Recover the amino acids of this structure.
């Protein structure tokens, strides 16, 4: 005999399937086929050449902060 509460399980599983389908739809919907169709291999060859020294990393150099002035003690 079937349990009377088994319909709730089907509703929960159905809701999970719908949520997974919606997540898949939104996560995979970012590609524009018109842009992909017009893209060529020239895009990879037009990147500017780097002439930086490989021993130096690309970190930004920051100067140390100047010490603040303190008010004279009275």
């Amino acid at each position: 005999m079937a349990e009377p509460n088994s319909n709730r399980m089907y509703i929960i599983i159905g809701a999970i399937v719908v949520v997974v389908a919606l997540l898949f739809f939104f996560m995979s919907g970012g590609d524009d086929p018109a842009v992909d169709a017009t893209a060529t291999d020239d895009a990879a060859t037009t990147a500017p050449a780097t002439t930086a020294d490989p021993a130096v990393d690309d970190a930004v150099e920051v100067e140390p902060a100047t010490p603040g002035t303190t008010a004279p003690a009275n």
